[in-house]
UniProtKB/TrEMBL annotation:
The keyword Oxidoreductase applies. It comes from Methylobacterium frigidaeris. Residues 262-399 form the Acyl-CoA dehydrogenase C-terminal domain. It holds the Pfam family Acyl-CoA_dh_N. This is FMNH2-dependent monooxygenase SfnC. The lineage of its organism: Bacteria, Pseudomonadati, Pseudomonadota, Alphaproteobacteria, Hyphomicrobiales. The keyword Oxidoreductase applies.
Length: 428
């Protein structure tokens, strides 16, 4: 696909090499979230295509996407949200999520590996501390990336951590172990949550290659297997005082943001599944004696399956972009200095994302199962890796379980109860 400048084009576009490509609108996925989206996306589409071309083999061989993430950094994808004057593209939140959907078509492992980086970027952009912003904006502009070091397993209670950051002279010493350290193996920095000597929450970012930091690729989930979402160990790590965030809280719309990255990833998985099943049906030469046509591509029942998968992917993407508008309203209210309006908008954003979780998850899980109904037994060959779509979707859907989302939305609708501001896991 190709994208144009200014307003979305309704006709095909010509590449410099003379070939003609269809725009996103003509291929039926709809217009982007802004008039300039097509031009912004065109910067990254060649990288997305390369990432998608190698995704089945990477999944089959369990080959981590180091090169793919490096290509995105080189293309400055990781600076999307920074203002142009700060070395970025000034992408709005809907534009960011539109691009995350497209990246996820290529490989949802790569999207998930960048989830913590984009979340940390929002923390920096929203920080009320000028020194913190002035320290991190140039690093992000220089295409340094940040991985996750927040979640833990073990005996820590809900809302607390066993990872401790203790004062030592002019700096700190860090000790602890994290799990679900998604993206950290690929990153330059690890953003972590800990407690201080008094048990109070404290946050910091440490270099991944610092002495005492060890990141292990020991994630053995059946899906999202290439995100390196395993263990990070911190043993006597020297932490400079400047690396400790003066505000241990997160940005206003953090809960909605992180969950919406998962939903954008799911939407991209659905779109990839729709593309794969359509291509394989078009290529298929064998038919069943009890089928409805001499060509599989003409069989109305098979076409119905393809259409159902594609419709699910379309709906999932539309829902994600609509919810992204709610996050943008929080951002704009904060930029305008209207804290009261921003607080209300943040609650509404949480509601909208919660409303989307069960619907988007169900659409994509169903679609990634149903696609096999349009194909023969050959579609289960490992080399095609079509099962990765369901495995990746199923794994993403286990984060912050969807079973609680409908209840949260119902409580808001009936009782006006705001959704939780944070989601934590631990011992009761």
């Amino acid at each position: 696909m190709s994208f144009g400048m200014s307003a979305p084009r309704s006709a095909s576009a010509d590449r410099q090499d003379g070939t003609t490509v269809m725009t996103q609108i003509q291929t039926g996925w709809g217009a982007g979230p802004s008039a300039r989206y097509e031009d912004l996306a065109e910067r990254f589409r060649p990288v997305f295509r390369e990432i998608r071309a190698g995704a089945p083999a990477r999944d089959h061989e369990r080959r981590l996407p180091h090169a793919e993430l490096a290509a995105l950094k080189e293309a400055s994808f990781t600076t999307l949200r920074l203002p142009p004057g700060e070395g970025g593209h000034g992408a709005s939140l809907p534009e960011l999520f539109g691009l995350l959907i497209e990246l996820s078509v290529g490989d949802p492992n790569v999207t998930n590996a960048l989830r913590a980086h984009f979340g940390f970027t929002e923390d920096v952009l929203n920080s009320p501390h000028p020194d913190w912003r002035s320290q991190w904006l140039p690093r992000i502009a220089a295409r340094q990336t940040v991985g996750s070091g927040v979640s833990e397993t073990g005996a820590a209670k809900v809302g607390s951590f066993d990872t401790v950051l203790k004062r030592r002279g002019d700096g700190y010493i860090l000790d602890g172990t994290k799990f679900y350290t998604t993206g950290s193996l690929f990153a330059d920095w690890i953003h972590l949550a800990a407690v201080d000597e008094a048990g109070q929450p404290i946050g910091a970012a440490v270099p991944r290659l610092a002495t005492g930091v060890e990141v292990l690729d020991d994630w053995d989930g059946f899906g999202q297997a290439l995100t390196a979402s395993g263990t990070a160990k911190f043993t006597g790590v020297a932490v400079e005082a400047a690396w400790v965030n003066p505000d241990p809280g997160r940005f206003r719309y953090a809960v909605a943001f992180y969950q919406l990255v998962h939903l954008a990833t799911l939407a991209g998985i659905g779109r990839a599944a729709a593309g794969d099943v359509a291509r394989l049906v078009a290529e298929r030469t064998r038919v069943y004696s009890h089928g409805n046509a001499a060509r599989t591509a003409d069989d109305p029942q098979v076409l119905q399956v393809v259409g159902r998968v594609r419709g699910a992917a379309y709906a999932a993407g539309a829902i994600v972009l609509k919810a992204a508008e709610a996050l943008q309203r929080v951002w704009e209210a904060d930029r305008a200095g209207d804290g009261e309006e921003a607080a209300v908008a943040a609650t509404v954003a949480d509601v909208e994302v919660n409303q989307a979780v069960t619907v988007v998850t169900g659409l994509v899980l169903d679609a990634t199962t149903q696609l096999f109904d349009a194909l023969g037994a050959s579609s289960t060959r490992r080399g095609l890796a079509l099962d990765r779509h369901w495995r990746n979707a199923r794994t993403i859907a286990t984060h912050n379980p969807r079973i609680y989302r409908d209840r949260t939305v119902g409580d808001f609708a009936v009782n006006g109860t705001a959704p939780p501001r944070q989601y934590r896991v631990g011992q009761a």
